Amino acid sequence: MMRVMEPPPTEEAALAPVSVFWDIKSFPVPDGYDARLVGPCIKRNLRKLGYTGPITITAFGVLSEVPRDILKAVYSTGISLKEVIKSPTNMYALFLESSLLRTPPPANMMVISRPPSYIPRHFSSIRDKDREKGRYTIFPFPFGEMPLTLAISLWEDFLLADPVALEEEKCSEMGDPASWFCAVCHHFAAPDLVTGRDFDSFITHLYSRQHAQLLQFQTVPCSPGSVCKHAALAPSIRFICVNKKIEEEARAEAPRDTTSQLT
């Protein structure tokens, strides 16, 4: 991963905060790897590249499908947790979802997820406009077609680099206290029930009956081309349907990119 990550493009970017969004489902902690080293590893490599601003890390995904001991280990090192309706499909989807969560510019955003199989034509202009506003994006892989197995291999190589130094950093730097947030239930429950800092409270919520019911209901897709039957219930449910529509449009548009444009 270090072979393709780029150093800060400007001095402004080097000094700005870095928000890291990690798709913990697509890029899990490898078997036998100490999950408490993930945070120090990410921070160490960003520092080596020249990013000197504060670094925050958030793990995204359907976290009930991630082993509880892994969640507890990464949380103990300052990595925050966000439970979502469905895990991001690739780096581009995570980029779009995380764009709304960044700190005010100047700021950096790093997304760790699988490489996309298709890149919308307008993506470059989105990044250029973001950079003009002082928002910079860091990708761990080249933004193009890459086998998932190769991307995961690069992720594992990244985590296994310099384990002795990481062990020392794990012991010396615990990071800021982590927090958790449930995007599945936040439209339906009191704020103190869908966010917090206590890990045990997160686990209690994650495996509650109410959470399981809301997660199941919100992942029922609307039929393509039909009016969203969930739209009246909550914006979060409409959002999942909009995502499905965007993915369908992208798949339909992809073949046309290989042919000449119509005049």
UniProtKB/TrEMBL annotation:
One GO term in the molecular function aspect is: RNA nuclease activity
**A Pfam family per the record:** NYN
InterPro entries, sorted: Marf1, NYN
Report the GO terms under cellular component. Answer: peroxisome
| GO BP terms | regulation of gene expression
Q: Which residues form the NYN domain?
A: 18-138
Q: What is this protein called?
A: NYN domain limkain-b1-type
- Organism encoding this protein: Arabidopsis thaliana x Arabidopsis arenosa
